[in-house]
């Protein structure tokens, strides 16, 4: 149970620029014997407060999501749990893009749902501007939802087929009427269509009359409607073909500059993640294996799983391809209902030793790199972390 | 990127709004955009071209008019018989729509007039049962499917109990309680046992729909349960329910006829095809037309509704396109 120790260490730190001020306000309100309503108002005020560029806007601390496995029809009893996300911590800074990569079933999409509070976390916290959003409800939760929005993976299922584009993009305004007055909404929808590069005249069309790329633009417009600060993109281009992927990615980068957005960009395409991300986190079986800037992860990976992933990236130059070592992993990803002890990756790792089965490696800068300032000195959850240049070798 | 946004989307032009669709192709010039085409209008476009739908719709329309205004179809009364002149008189197939057209029954009543007046009982029972079943079963199925958990457990077990009761036998037991059975009592008895089918279909359909990304997206926007159910889940889950309800409507008409035939359905003097079939069985050897004509009427009506349901399913199910 090395995780417990990590939890204490991790939750100790989440302080945000506006957080300390809000904290002080709160104690004042408590002495004034204020009710819950005041507290909610404060949380909402903290959520609405601006954050400086580069400050952490979203802080995830030891986030856990276990889906219970039950047996029985009338009387359900729990016989286990799928550990989809099992203790993840990272920060998202204002204005940056954090890429999250990993193979299918490693918990990427569950992280997205947890950050959107579409699923309730089993344990752990998500701090948005210093406020833990995993326990919010009612008005405060609605305020969070205004500020954190999502772009979905499949543009064919993320738009209601029975609603026109105008109704789809206009729905955020109906749910949050304070954002746009009633008479202004049609105009705002047209503006949004224009912003994402669609003809504003398409406002009365239905989703099935659009192509995949156009639909994804509609999904992005819906996400932008409330002027959010964070957009969580759950594989936003995986369902699109390659030429359209580039258009959508470029649009997202343009919008980031224009509206000062912070992105969490979940994908399994390593090259797209490198293109758009400032920092990258690599997930394996519900845990973060390695996290760092794109240069640190792509050019100086220290976790064997990252190295294996990168060695599978196709290299367009045949002469470079010759000398390159490909790391072929054996076996399948273990079941998240019954993950291996110690390091999650040890069952497929060529470096695995006894220590890996006994001790869970912490996500921290490995000891051997701690003194150095080099690009290899970034957080990596491996007992035997070492550099291995797999892309250029 | 502007090339993508200007790209035209091919939409099959309909004769009705062909001009407007042609206008759609050139939206680049900023002209007014034509009437939008929803999935429902696409389905309607498909339906109008389906001969199965046209035939069944015309049949059902005639039947509905017959049920509301039977006097438009015949001047004869279905209840006054003339044993002296008309006892089991053979049909005069040449005399279309005259009282003697389809012959007379054992009490000297015009079979044609009874066919016309019998439509009201059948159509009322069919439509009323379908409405009640769709409202009750739909609501129960939707709540069970959307909320899941213990609500689903309780509602589903109740559903299992009702589904376990045999439909026809169960209605007979219920109807046996009443001495005089009006159309409405029969309809209630059928609905009491018939709602399970619709509830099951709705539950399944709602469970599929609620997992869709657009429902998640609405939740992520902060939409409340009411909005999600009415704007997102219901419109997308209702298609299979409509199909099953249309097909079941024919089944309810057949069930009413069966109950009336067994003498436990609608009581006289209400005219019902099932009762006429029952009356005719005694003269099957010497006057088969007394039984066959109302029996054919029941079959045609049931067939029309099943055909309609089939056509609607083909039009609404995107997988078949």
TrEMBL record, chain B:
Q: Which InterPro entries match?
A: BP-dependent_transpt_permease, MetI-like, MetI-like_sf, OppC_N
Specify where the region named Disordered lies, as residue ranges. Answer: 1-30
Where does the UniProt entry say this protein principally localizes? membrane
Q: CDD domains attached here?
A: TM_PBP2
Localization in the cell: Cell membrane
TM helices/strands, residue ranges: 52-73, 123-146, 158-178, 184-202, 237-267, 287-312
| Topological relation to the membrane, as annotated | Multi-pass membrane protein
Q: Can you give the residue ranges of the ABC transmembrane type-1 domain?
A: 119-309
Q: Which family does it belong to?
A: Belongs to the binding-protein-dependent transport system permease family.
**What is this protein's name?**
ABC transporter permease
């Amino acid at each position: 149970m090395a995780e417990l120790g990590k939890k204490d260490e991790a939750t100790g730190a989440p302080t945000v620029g506006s957080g300390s001020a809000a904290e002080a306000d709160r104690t004042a309100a408590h002495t004034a014997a204020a009710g819950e309503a005041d507290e909610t108002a404060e949380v909402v005020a903290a959520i609405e407060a601006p954050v400086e560029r580069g400050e952490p806007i979203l802080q995830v601390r030891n986030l856990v999501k276990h889906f219970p496995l039950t047996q029985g029809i009338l009387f359900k009893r729990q016989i286990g749990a799928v550990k989809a996300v099992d203790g993840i911590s990272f920060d998202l800074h204002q204005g940056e893009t954090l890429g999250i990569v990993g193979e299918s079933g490693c918990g990427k999409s569950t992280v997205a749902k947890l950050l959107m509070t579409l699923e309730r976390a089993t344990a752990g916290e998500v701090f948005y501007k210093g406020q833990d959003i995993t326990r919010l409800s009612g008005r405060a939760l609605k305020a969070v939802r205004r500020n954190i929005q999502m772009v979905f993976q499949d543009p064919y299922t993320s738009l209601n087929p029975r609603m026109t584009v105008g109704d789809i993009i206009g729905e955020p305004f109906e749910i949050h009427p304070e954002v746009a007055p009633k008479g202004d909404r049609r105009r705002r929808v047209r503006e949004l269509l224009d912003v994402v590069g669609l003809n504003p005249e398409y406002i009365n069309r239905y989703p099935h009359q659009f192509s995949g790329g156009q639909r994804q633009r509609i999904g992005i417009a819906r996400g932008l409607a409330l002027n959010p600060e964070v957009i969580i993109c759950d594989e936003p281009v995986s369902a699109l073909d390659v030429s359209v992927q580039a258009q959508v990615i470029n649009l997202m980068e343009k919008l980031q500059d224009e509206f000062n957005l912070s992105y969490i960009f979940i994908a399994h395409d390593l090259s797209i993640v490198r293109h758009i991300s400032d920092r990258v986190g690599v997930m394996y079986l519900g845990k973060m294996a390695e996290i760092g800037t794109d240069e640190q992860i792509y050019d100086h990976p220290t976790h064997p799983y990252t190295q294996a992933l990168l060695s599978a990236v196709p290299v367009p130059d045949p002469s470079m391809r010759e000398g390159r070592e490909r790391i072929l992993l054996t076996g399948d990803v273990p079941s998240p209902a019954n993950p291996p002890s110690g390091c999650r990756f040890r069952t497929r790792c060529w470096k695995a030793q006894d220590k890996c089965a006994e001790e869970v490696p912490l996500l921290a800068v490995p000891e051997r790199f701690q003194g150095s300032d080099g690009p290899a000195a970034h957080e990596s959850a491996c007992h035997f972390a070492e550099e291995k240049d797999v892309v250029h070798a | 990127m502007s090339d993508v946004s200007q790209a035209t989307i091919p939409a099959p032009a309909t004769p009705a709004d062909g001009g407007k669709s042609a206008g759609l192709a050139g939206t680049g010039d900023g002209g007014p955009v034509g009437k939008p085409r929803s999935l429902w209008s696409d389905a309607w476009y498909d339906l109008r071209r389906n001969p199965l739908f046209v035939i069944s719709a015309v049949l059902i329309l005639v039947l509905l008019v017959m049920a509301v205004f039977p006097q438009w179809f015949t001047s004869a009364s279905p209840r006054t018989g003339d044993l002296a002149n008309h006892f089991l008189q053979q049909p005069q197939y040449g005399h279309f729509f005259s009282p003697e057209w389809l012959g007379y029954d054992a009490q000297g009543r015009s079979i044609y007039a009874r066919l016309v007046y019998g439509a009201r009982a059948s159509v009322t029972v069919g439509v009323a049962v379908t409405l009640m079943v769709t409202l009750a079963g739909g609501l129960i199925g939707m709540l069970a499917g959307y909320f899941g958990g213990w609500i689903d457990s309780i509602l589903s077990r109740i559903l299992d109990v009702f589904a376990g009761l045999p439909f026809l036998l169960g209605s007979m037991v219920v109807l046996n309680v009443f001495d005089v059975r009006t159309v409405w009592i029969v309809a209630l008895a059928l609905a009491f046992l018939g709602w399970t089918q619709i509830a099951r279909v709705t539950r399944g359909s709602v469970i599929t729909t609620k997992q869709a990304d657009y429902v998640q997206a609405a939740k992520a926007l902060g939409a409340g349960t009411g909005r999600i159910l009415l704007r997102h889940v219901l419109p997308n889950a209702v298609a299979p329910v409509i199909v099953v309800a249309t097909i079941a409507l024919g089944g309810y008409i057949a069930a009413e006829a069966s109950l009336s035939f067994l003498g436990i359905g609608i009581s006289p003097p209400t005219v019902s095809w099932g009762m006429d079939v029952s009356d005719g069985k005694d003269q099957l050897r010497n006057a088969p037309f007394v039984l066959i004509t109302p029996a054919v009427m029941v079959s045609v009506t049931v067939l029309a509704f099943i055909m309609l349901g089939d056509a609607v399913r083909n039009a609404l199910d995107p997988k078949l396109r």
